[in-house]
Design brief:
431 residues; alpha/beta; 26% strand; binds uridine-diphosphate-N-acetylglucosamine; 4-stranded mixed beta sheet; globular
Length: 431
């Protein structure tokens, strides 16, 4: 299995291009199942999760075609991929496929909307908590869907005549269930209103794409979304929005190592809260024409207190990376995780590098240390893996990160992007 070796190597300087967002690309691919026309997604990141979902969708009858490069495209330009679900050939999403990626559970929305039935395995995904599906079930029931769970599968059936518009108030914000409702209700009879909907930019991106496909969605980006059902959707071309988690991650890399880096194509509004928190560490954040400039050339990293929250709060997907940053702060930081109950698995690995972190329930107290030292560590989940790279950027000696398949799920061309700004990072394949 591949490993990443990283040696603490001083400041980072230059430009890192930000890729299209994984967390938007995946639901957008699934949304393509709602029409028999081709849907072209631009700015698609090259990620293991994208490839895995392509093969999962093929099982349902979705063909895809990577379109040719255009003048000016570089090896880091996002790809253009056309998806076409001329016919849905299978309404079952089997365990073997769904367990590899939780997002593939979301096919339940388009399958119900287009075929009236779906049989979808209960999901797996990153081991960061129990991650139940009650909100998916309740919200789909509000559209008239009958659901039973049997032998590890969710069997769902739309009413005769198709999904019915309905009203549902989420007791808790759910990004995944909001995606599913957007997709399902777009083809329902009548109007659906969802309240306490997720406001995450990726949900907005999905709604924008659906509208380009002929859906009638309004209020996306606020807590109340109204979806007027239409009888059919058509093809569209849609550009995936920049990855705010990748943006925040590289910003944390620069804050940790010091230096001056332009995060090209990044959009500050997608992660304002995280950028505000970063500034409190003593890091410069400047929104410029073509992205965000992150700089810290002198001075200590200041301690911070932050808590994860649904958008527009601090993203849970950046918690581990910012925690890594403050392991070197001049003082004590407090990091509270409110979205998932088991998302501190990186703590024991950071401790192997010399970090001083104590966990009490949902809060980690991080006492900054003068130095970290390289060690062998293990990636535990997608975002947590990046916390080890961030620590490795400043650790004395060599840090060896194993199980890097977690990173490949969500960070495009990671070693290339970091070495281009001066990091000493390499991948060792095989073994
Ligand atoms: C969540 C994050 C998202 C992140 C992703 C991967 C939030 C609100 N969501 O999205 O930002 O990119 O993980 O790390 O920050 N829940 C239930 N019942 C359900 C569905 C969810 O109780 O049926 C709970 C979850 O266990 C969790 C919370 O609701 O505690 C948010 O879950 P949800 O947003 O659905 O998860 P993801 O879509 O995976």
């Amino acid at each position: 299995m591949d490993k990443i070796l990283i040696r603490g190597n001083g400041q980072l300087n230059g430009t890192i291009p930000i890729s299209g967002a994984k967390n938007a690309a995946l639901p957008l691919m699934i949304a393509s199942m709602l029409t028999s026309d081709p849907v072209t997604l631009e700015n698609m990141p090259r990620l293991a999760d994208v490839e895995a979902l392509q093969s999962i969708l093929s099982n349902h009858g979705v063909d895809y075609r990577v379109k040719g490069k255009r003048p000016g495209d570089t090896s880091m330009t996002g790809r253009r991929i056309e998806f076409q679900a001329s016919e849905i050939v299978d309404t079952t999403a089997p365990y073997d496929l769904v367990r590899k990626m939780r997002a593939s559970f979301w096919v339940i929305g388009p399958l119900l909307a287009r075929c009236g039935v779906a049989r979808v395995s209960l999901p797996g995904g990153c081991a960061i908590g129990t991650r139940p599906i009650d909100l998916f079930i309740e919200s789909l029931e509000a559209l008239g869907v009958e659901i039973d769970i049997e032998a590890g599968y969710v069997n769902a059936k739309a009413p005769k005549g198709g999904l019915q518009g309905g009203h549902y108030t989420f007791p808790k914000v759910s990004v995944g269930a909001t995606h599913v409702m957007l997709m399902a209700a777009s083809l329902a009879n009548g109007t659906t209103v969802i309240e306490n909907a997720a406001r995450e930019p990726e949900c907005v991106d999905v709604a924008n794409c659906l509208n380009a496909m002929g859906a009638k969605i309004s209020g996306h980006g606020t807590s109340t979304i109204t979806i007027e059902g239409v009888t059919s959707l058509h093809g569209a071309t849609h550009e995936v929005l920049p990855d705010r988690i990748e943006t925040g991650t590289f910003a944390a890399c620069v804050a940790m190592a010091g230096g001056d880096v332009l995060l090209k194509n990044a959009q500050g509004a997608l992660l304002q809260n995280a950028l505000d928190v970063l500034e409190l560490t003593g890091t410069g954040v400047d929104q410029v024409n073509d992205g965000i400039r992150i700089h810290r050339t002198s001075g200590d990293i200041q301690p911070i207190d932050f808590s994860t929250d649904p958008f527009p709060g601090f993203p849970t997907d950046l918690q581990a990376q910012y925690m890594a940053l403050v392991t070197r702060a001049k003082g004590v930081s407090h990091v509270t995780e409110t979205i998932f109950e088991n998302r501190f698995m990186h703590v024991q690995e950071l401790a192997r590098l010399g970090a001083n972190i104590a966990i009490d329930g949902q809060t980690a107290t991080v006492t900054g240390v003068e130095r970290l030292s390289g060690a062998q560590v293990m990636a535990t989940d997608l975002r947590a893996s990046m916390s080890l790279i961030i620590a490795g950027l400043v650790a004395d000696g060599e840090t060896e990160v194993s199980r890097v398949y977690h990173l490949d799920r969500g960070f495009e061309l990671l070693e290339d992007k970091l070495s281009a700004v001066g990091a000493d990072i390499e991948r060792v394949t095989g073994g």
